Amino acid sequence: VCEVVCPAMKAKLGPESPVTFYYQFPPTLRLQPGPSRQFRRVHRDAEYGHQDGEVNFWMPLTDPAKTQVTLWVESSPDAGDFKLFALDHGSVGMFWGTNCPHRG
Fold first, then answer.
1. pLDDT band at 69 (very low <50, low <70, confident <90, very high)
2. How far, in Å, CA of 87 to CA of 104, rounded?
3. In a 10 Å sphere around its CB, with 0-12 CB exposed, 13-18 middle and 19+ buried, how is residue 104 labelled?
4. How many helices (H) and strands (E) does the chain have?
5. Residue 87's closest CA among 65, 54, 55, 56?
6. How much is the pTM?
7. What is the pLDDT of residues 30-42, one digit of tens each?
8. Is residue 57 exposed (0-12), middle (13-18) or buried (19+ Cβ within 10 Å)?
């Protein structure tokens, strides 16, 4: 988190923004076994008590093409434009899961 995620977030914000990052420890790890055609219900993490300023990171631990494990995310709250969050094995993506509906 301190060596990869926080520097990447700081780069997105720009060097002129003084900021302190807070992160969950230990992080929540959700495993989604595949292959499966069953999806979790569409939800926002705010429904589970997550705070507005939180962001989610998704990193496939296996090849999504082989396991058929996917994540669908809206681009902004209630946009209605669910898109496949396509990442390669070992890549990391970020989304605003607190308020953007998503399902895996």
1. confident
2. 13
3. middle
4. 2, 5
5. 65
6. 0.77
7. 777 777 677 678 9
8. middle
